[in-house]
Design a protein that fits this description.
The termini are far apart. The chain has 2 domains: 3-88, no CATH class; 99-181, Regulator of K+ conductance, C-terminal domain (Alpha-Beta Plaits, 2-Layer Sandwich), CATH 3.30.70.1450. By secondary structure, the protein is an alpha+beta fold. The strands form 2 sheets. A 7-stranded antiparallel sheet has the order 1-7-6-5-4-3-2. It has a 4-stranded antiparallel sheet with strand order 8-11-9-10. The chain is built from 3 helices and 11 strands. One of its GO terms (molecular function) is monoatomic cation transmembrane transporter activity. It comes from Nocardia ignorata.
Length: 182
């Protein structure tokens, strides 16, 4: 059924930032080397529920134990399961065409976090040489809930940024390694 993780397994004790949605604060927490956790409190249940968006594009549903918001059970979801769950909850489903129907093989997007201590924290996009080194392209950066589409080469990354990259599976894997290690 997934894993149970707590503070000893590396879950952060503080939240990085919050978003506000229909009367509920959604906490967005970078998980270094993993991805981003987005969760919110369930008022009546004394629990938190949310998702972990992994650096590799996979998603886990996370639910905390009653009365212990820091210990979570993680349930990996396939893209089909994500769509079904969204439908059950009443969210509109977006039908995504397969890359091969567009004549493009293996093209997708992923979000990568710029972690504190990253070799690119405080450095401009041009220093990554992303396109040249990985054949993947940065198409947007999300900072504190604000999106910068098509950032220029002089755009300076800071810890906490989510970098949206488009490319092949191989290119996206290389982009993740590049942003982690330089």
């Amino acid at each position: 059924m997934g894993i149970v993780a707590g503070p000893a397994r590396g879950w952060p004790h503080r939240r990085a930032r919050s978003s506000y949605c229909v009367g509920v604060n959604i906490d967005v927490t970078p998980l270094p080397g993993i991805g981003v956790c987005k969760d919110f409190p369930l008022a009546e249940a004394r629990r938190r529920i949310g998702v972990i968006e992994h650096r590799d594009g996979t998603v886990d549903l996370v639910v905390s134990r009653a009365g212990d918001a820091e210990t979570k059970t993680s349930i990996p979801l396939s893209s089909t399961e994500i769509g079904v769950l969204a439908g059950l909850l009443g969210a509109p489903q977006v039908v995504q065409k397969k890359a091969d129907s567009l004549g493009v093989d293996d093209l997708s997007t992923r979000q990568f976090a710029i972690d504190r201590g990253s070799p690119f924290d405080g450095r401009p996009l041009r220093d990554t040489a992303m396109r040249t080194r990985t054949k993947a392209s940065v198409v947007a950066v999300v900072r504190a809930g604000e999106v910068t589409p098509s950032p220029g080469t002089d755009f300076v990354f800071v810890a906490g940024d989510l970098v949206v990259v488009v490319g092949t599976g191989k290119g996206l894997e290389a982009a993740g390694k590049l942003l982690d290690a330089g």
